[in-house]
Specification:
The chain has 189 residues and is an alpha/beta fold. It contains 5 helices and 14 strands. The strands form 5 sheets. It has a 6-stranded parallel β-sheet, sandwiched between helices. The longest helix has 14 residues. The protein is globular and about 50 Å long.
Length: 189
Amino acid sequence: MFLENTGLKNESYGWIEVITGSMFSGKTEELIRRLKRAKFANLNVEIFKPEVDNRYGTDKVISHDANEIISTAVPAAANIRLLADNCDVVGIDEAQFFDDEIVRVCNDLANRGIRVIVAGLDMDFKGIPFGPMPALLAKADYITKLHAICMKCGDIANYSFRKTAIEDKVVLGEHDTYEARCRSCFYNG
């Protein structure tokens, strides 16, 4: 996309796409799908995830359905800015685990002409907006909100219910630790 800047020249700008929703809604699956399509188009693609997410190792982003793509684990959002040179597309998984700098990083990359695709939980296990996700959603050019199926009643699920008594904000887990729930089952569970 080209935007007129001063009338003397055109500058190329990228954009920010955010894929969000609850656990088990297919966020990572959709991120991988979009990134693979960009690779098919011969675009230079880099994928990043936070170091803290080591559930499947450090060199891959893997969906719950075992779909995968090679990635780079980084300790902080600022590292993405340094590693994203010469990229056409940057993918970022589990954005809720990054520090607030992730918002500036995504904005800077988009302003450099890069398509930025970010996936992350919109709410934590208490139903509270998660980390930098509200600010990323505000900055996004495109938003895709995905829904899971409630594990209690089968309705559309929007919440990530933690099945353990652990109160830490960040607890990595799968079906043994979390389940998707609708609003009713989340608040009455």
